[in-house]
Amino acid sequence: MEHLSRRWFLGVSGATLLTAGLTACGSGDDSGEDGKGGPLTAFVWGDDAARIQEEAIQRFNTSPAAKKTGGTIKLQRIPGSDYPAKLRTAMGSPSAPDLFFNWGGGSIKAYVDENQLIDLHDIIESTPELKNGFLPSIIQSGALDGRPYGIPMRGMQPVLLFFNKKVFAQNGLQAPTSWDQLLETNKKLKASGIQPFALGGADKWTELMWVEYLVDRIGGPEVFRKIQNGDAAAWGDPAVLRAAEEIKKLVDGGAFGKGFSSVQYNNGGASALLAQGKAGMHLMGSWEYSTQLGKFKKFAEKDLGWVAFPAYNGGQGDIKNVVGNPTNYWSLSARTKNREAAIAFLKTCASEEYAKALVANGDIPTTADAGALLDASPNPEFAKFQYELVQDAPAFTLSWDQAVKPEWQTPMLTEIDKLFLGQSSPKEFVTALKGLK
Predict the structure, then answer these.
(1) Under CATH, domain 157-323+405-434 is a member of which superfamily?
(2) Is the pTM of this model over 0.90?
(3) 303-306 contact pairs (CB < 8 A, 24+)
């Protein structure tokens, strides 16, 4: 199931693998002083979508740019379960990859802290293909402290509010665009005996999406930006407490049903509630469409609707802001054996040829001109909605479990789960998060 690789995040073992034993080996490689000359190695998450990167590298290796820079690239497809360990081991050795696949944010923080990656700001600014080739919000979403360390290389995956159009029509409802409308929709669905929201609470990351969007809509993206940069005190922002209070009201009012903690997303349980009309809405990443198409094809093609997360009345966050997985990135090792060739390859990720390959694979490219290519998508309507949503977004916040530093990931998800389960109050929730070290 492809969405599982897209939702991958570092748990306790992953965090340990990522942070343990990293060393900034300043010598011991065979690069020249200017980082030019010689072949390159690239690590990629080895799912089905890796064939897009494989084909791109094959094209590059026979291109004039490869000949000019004297650099060809060897791609290593690494099974997902082995990826963090393999990458950590390689980055701590003399044979670090020149380029590697990642999620930006917290997934690369340990490497940035050890000065093992190239800050791409100046390279992007001085390279028109890179500066003008991608949606600005996507570049910044993978950044740390405002500095980009990655170039987009896969499709975008925003989190959307999906709904059952048949259920809504039967109950005279419209897709909510404000929090008050969402609460009213919640009330009417419960009165009709329908669970308002599907939630796969057995998989904690599904609960995170509610916190992410509410904090954004109430306080704006700056609140989490401080948290992402390591400021634990920022968990005490009033927007975090207000978000927790709104979630408690929803849970206590039965918005997610009584047994949501035993419902799984990974086995299709939450998606089935929406498709079968047992739930009216479902907050989930854009991969929900492909999940529904695979499991409930007729529903996906006829009755599956989607809308942006509603605005919060009186909140500071723009309804155009998006949270989710902006994309995956190529990052460039500071010890690359051929910087010129690596940059030449990165430029190809902004090309129309590369974007077309993503579209044909059902992905939504993050390139600035991809909108014109989406008629070739398996579902042009859904593809264009996502692309325009991200294109217009003032901010695209990376999923928190991928954005925060690794040692915060598991305890953060645990505290969110305790909030949903009623095991901690909103104030206790904030206090626990402020205590993260």
Answers:
(1) Periplasmic binding protein-like II (3.40.190.10)
(2) no
(3) 303/164, 303/165, 303/166, 304/162, 304/164, 304/165, 304/274, 304/275, 305/162, 305/163, 305/164, 305/165, 305/168, 305/175, 306/160, 306/161, 306/162, 306/163, 306/382, 306/385
